[in-house]
Write a structure and sequence with these properties.
CATH architecture of the largest domain: 2-Layer Sandwich
CATH class of the largest domain: Alpha Beta
Distance between the termini: 13 Å
Shape: elongated
Radius of gyration: 23 Å
Strand content: 15-25%
Length: 336
């Protein structure tokens, strides 16, 4: 007899959590078309810089493959052509100034008297252009310093983040500069971050992504504050790195332990384990408390569900799991 708990988890991933290959291909086609439109804009509009076609990059959850269904955001680093402009680091390298060369075009209203490029001005210019699109929805400035745009009929929102690709041959380091919301620029390391996540996932036979997906689904199904993706992914990565045994295809075996880890760490600073973003935990105190309380309750329920399953009391196990991961789970189980 097929274990109905295993069957229900398999179907939960297939029907409600995982994003299908066909859907991913459709999004990629949409992304390619949108980037083509942006290049058309950069040729026709004087208030937008030239673009660097070879360095655009999809980042965040969709770029790393850690998104769940339905997809809500696609974060795009749209790489600008700085025309050999000078980049200067301020302080300890957390803030950068980009000074545009005298002969460079297309930066007229985005630079000051010292020819320093204002990142907020570029994002505003993208926003103004998006508002003119005939099918534009949800156009605004984003918290990440870019401009958002949703095409009518699409479920997801593009977050267009203007950026510059920086390559340092002497140090063999490369990174992107993106708006820091104060007019200057800050470095991010998306290639290194993705490689680090993939390496840890590989150490666990490719099953860490399942844990990330199920915990994003758990967060969505409960009436608690949303845990930002970078923070939630960091919590899962830390749990997996501390786990002596490798993960298996049965994600439910680790749900209780992961909820315990979230409960223990959500009140504390959570330093970025895969990049250089510092403390990722920007949640307010009341949000941290609400998440901690839910994680504690669901950890106990997950323990009970596992025990019922071991005792082959599948009906009670499924009842408990449905309280943890949502009531769709109960519909997917084949048990009387």
């Amino acid at each position: 007899m097929l274990n109905p708990v295993v069957h229900a988890f398999d179907q939960l991933f297939v029907q409600h959590i995982n994003y299908s290959d066909d859907d991913s291909a459709a999004v990629q086609k949409h992304v390619d078309s949108f980037i083509h439109e942006l290049h058309g804009l950069s040729y026709s509009e004087e208030n937008l810089p030239w673009l660097n076609r070879d360095r655009h990059l999809i980042v965040s959850s969709f770029g790393r493959g850690t998104h769940i269904n339905p997809l809500k955001h696609v974060h795009l680093l749209i790489c600008l052509n700085g025309e050999s402009s000078k980049v200067t680091a301020r302080g300890k390298g957390s803030s950068y100034i980009i000074r545009i060369n005298e002969g460079a075009e297309r930066f007229g209203d985005m630079i000051n008297e010292q020819r320093e490029l204002n990142s907020s001005a570029i994002s505003n210019n993208f926003r103004r252009e998006f508002e003119l699109f005939p099918d534009a929805k949800n156009v605004s400035l984003s918290a990440e310093g870019g401009a958002t745009y949703r095409r009518k009929g699409s479920l997801w929102v593009f977050n267009v983040i203007p950026s510059f690709f920086i390559n340092q041959p002497k140090t063999e380091k490369s990174f992107y500069l993106v708006p820091n919301q104060h007019g200057n620029w800050q470095p991010i390391y998306p290639h290194q971050e993705t490689a680090a996540v993939q390496a840890i996932n590989h150490q666990h036979n490719g099953f860490m992504y399942d844990l990330i997906h199920i915990m994003k689904y758990w967060n969505r199904e409960h009436d608690i504050p949303k845990i930002p993706s970078p923070l939630l992914e960091a919590l899962v990565v830390n749990y997996c790195e501390a786990k002596p045994e490798k993960l298996t295809e049965f994600a439910d075996l680790d749900i209780s332990g992961l909820l315990r880890s979230i409960r223990e760490h959500i009140q504390k600073p959570v330093m970025d384990p895969i990049g250089q973003r510092g403390d990722l935990n920007s949640l307010a105190e009341e949000s941290r408390q609400a998440i901690m309380d839910q994680a504690f309750k669901d950890q106990l329920k997950a323990d009970s569900a596992r025990q019922f399953e071991l005792n082959r009391d599948y009906k009670r196990s499924i009842e408990k799991w449905s309280e943890v991961v949502g009531y769709e789970f109960r519909k997917l189980a084949r048990v009387k």
